């Protein structure tokens, strides 16, 4: 079980552990600025940085600490090769529209590369070829179709029958001159640059509402306000919906990463399996040695019975492909996927001309997050690029959006019903230290976790977003909602939205023995 302790017991991101991130005070008064940016990940920081360069007065609000969300849990590939996306996209929007997706992401890639090299940012940046490989006949055919899509769209690439790393591949597509970097080192540089030019950053400052009008007012949980002309919501899941019904237009997906040193030499390059396991490999250099980041095992948040098994599967893949000398890190990430697998970037709704949103990055946040900053800047400056309409949140593409909307809502309804009818519950007093489970409290469903000191924590398992029942995530020690992806700490505090309120706490003595 768990490879006899070879996998770290606790989840720790290498990016976060290896970076000295500056800290900022919370907002303690009402302020006036040109633009309020909500969210301290790559999308929010890039947006704030670019607008500051344009002479705008900017305030960035982060509910927790900078980079503590998805940005610090990425594999940080900067590439336009987002799996087998282009053939699929041509199939439902046509070549001209699919070309806009590539154009936008390629501009973001070039921006990242130029910013790093021109400013000499020390962020472990290397130029790498990116590969999507297939090991089965079914996906060999899909890879061939993807290469044909490259040719139709003018994407520089190659169709291969072998790749530098032996992964049992039968075919692959490669795009040259992509990149990888340390995302937090890069973003710390942007933060220092923009604060030196007057941008304000406030941490532990949760935005809870936006009052729209001639000017916009962002209201914080503590009761302070930021008055501004424009607001950019870059909070992973939009904290403010703007009647866009984003909870029904996206679903949350988790994936997992191990940081290992390998027994076999690593030839360089970034690799992604075309198969559903989505096995992924890249490296970063640590103390003149290569730390391999091996990832994959995607699944809808809250819909995996035993999350630790995903780390096990990745360890087995790493062992079989490159050999595991030592496993130093493990962490997981969550991202949102839109109905048509394209991010929502632009005005949050047609009736909100000064409120912008960036979400639904589908695990490709380095380019999509950067693109978001570029597009929101251009929109505020009234210089929108021609691909803006392709990413606009108000779009609706009949295929596959209708099918995915129906499927997603049916799955949500099924999870809601399943949770309410769940009678297979354990007993809180049977839990061992560092173990969590669904239990019964006064005949009702509840969540229990016994910490490493033996203290029992009991919470109501009803998600505070829309009433679905959360499930225990043993890999991260969180309560995860299978309906819309909200996540809560073991004692009920919100870890990820759309939920904004914590799970209700229950008394220990009420637990049925």
In the predicted model, the low-confidence regions spanning at least 5 consecutive residues are 508-513
Percent range for β-strand residues: 25-35%
Q: Which structural class is indicated by helix and strand composition?
A: alpha+beta
Largest sheet: 9 strands, mixed
> What is the averaged pLDDT score?
90
- Number of H- or I-type helical stretches: 10
Percent range of helical residues: 25-40%
Q: What oligomeric state do the depicted chains represent?
A: single chain
Q: Per the principal axes of the C-alpha atoms, what is the gross shape?
A: globular
Distance between the termini: 29 Å
Give the number of DSSP strands.
27
Q: What is the C-alpha radius of gyration, as a whole number of Å?
A: 23 Å
In short:
This protein is of the alpha+beta class and 513 residues long. 27% of the residues lie in helices and 29% in strands. It has helices spanning 14-17, 42-53, 86-93, 95-118, 137-153, 183-196, 308-321, 365-380, 388-391, 398-420; strands spanning 31-32, 35-38, 58-61, 77-78, 126-134, 158-160, 171-180, 200-202, 207-211, 216-220, 225-228, 230-233, 250-262, 270-273, 280-286, 289-300, 324-338, 344-347, 355-359, 435-441, 444-450, 456-460, 471-473, 478-480, 487-489, 494-496, 505-506.
């Amino acid at each position: 079980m768990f490879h006899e302790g070879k996998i770290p017991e606790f989840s720790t991101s290498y990016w976060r552990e290896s970076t000295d991130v500056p800290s900022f005070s919370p907002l303690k008064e009402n302020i006036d600025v040109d633009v309020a940016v909500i969210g301290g990940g790559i999308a929010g920081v890039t947006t704030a940085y670019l607008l500051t360069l344009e002479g705008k007065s900017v305030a960035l609000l982060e509910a927790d600490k900078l980079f503590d969300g998805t940005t610090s849990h990425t594999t940080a590939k900067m590439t336009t090769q987002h799996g087998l996306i282009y053939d699929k996209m041509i199939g439902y929007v046509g070549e001209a529209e699919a070309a806009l997706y590539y154009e936008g992401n390629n501009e973001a890639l070039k921006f990242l590369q130029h910013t790093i090299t021109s400013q000499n940012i020390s962020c472990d940046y290397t130029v790498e070829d990116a590969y999507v490989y297939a090991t089965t006949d079914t996906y060999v055919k899909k890879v061939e179709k993807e290469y044909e899509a490259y040719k139709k769209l003018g994407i520089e690439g190659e169709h291969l029958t072998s790749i530098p790393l032996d992964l049992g591949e039968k075919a692959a597509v490669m795009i040259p001159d992509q990149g990888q970097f340390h995302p937090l080192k890069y973003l710390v540089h942007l933060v220092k640059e923009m604060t030196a030019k007057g941008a304000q950053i406030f941490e532990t400052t949760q935005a809870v509402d936006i009052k729209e009008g001639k000017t916009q007012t962002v209201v914080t949980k503590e009761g302070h306000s930021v008055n501004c002309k424009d607001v950019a919501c870059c909070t992973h899941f939009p904290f403010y919906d703007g009647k866009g019904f984003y909870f029904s237009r996206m679903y949350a997906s988790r994936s997992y990463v191990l940081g290992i040193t390998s027994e076999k030499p690593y030839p360089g390059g970034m690799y992604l399996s075309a198969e559903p396991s989505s096995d992924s490999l890249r490296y970063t250099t640590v103390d003149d040695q290569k730390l391999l980041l091996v990832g994959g095992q995607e699944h809808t948040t809250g819909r995996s019975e035993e999350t630790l098994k995903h780390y096990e599967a990745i360890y087995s893949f790493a062992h079989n492909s490159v050999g595991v000398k030592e496993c130093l890190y493990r962490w997981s990430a969550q991202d949102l996927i839109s109905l048509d697998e394209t991010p929502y970037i632009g005005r949050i709704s047609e009736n909100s001309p000064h409120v912008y949103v960036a979400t639904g990055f589908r695990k490709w946040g380095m380019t999509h997050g950067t693109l978001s900053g570029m597009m929101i800047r251009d929109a505020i400056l009234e210089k929108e690029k021609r691909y803006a309409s392709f990413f606009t949140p108000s779009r609706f593409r009949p295929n596959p959006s209708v099918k995915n909307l129906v499927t997603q809502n049916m799955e949500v309804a099924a999870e809601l019903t399943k949770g309410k009818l769940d009678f297979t519950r354990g007993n809180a007093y049977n839990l061992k230290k560092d173990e969590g489970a669904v239990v019964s409290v006064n005949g009702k469903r509840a969540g229990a976790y016994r910490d490493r000191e033996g203290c029992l924590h009991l919470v109501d398992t009803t998600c505070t977003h829309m009433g679905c029942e959360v499930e225990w995530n043993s890999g991260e020690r969180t309560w995860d909602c299978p309906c819309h992806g909200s996540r809560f700490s073991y004692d009920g505090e919100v870890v990820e939205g759309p939920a904004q309120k914590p799970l209700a706490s229950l008394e220990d003595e009420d637990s049925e023995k």
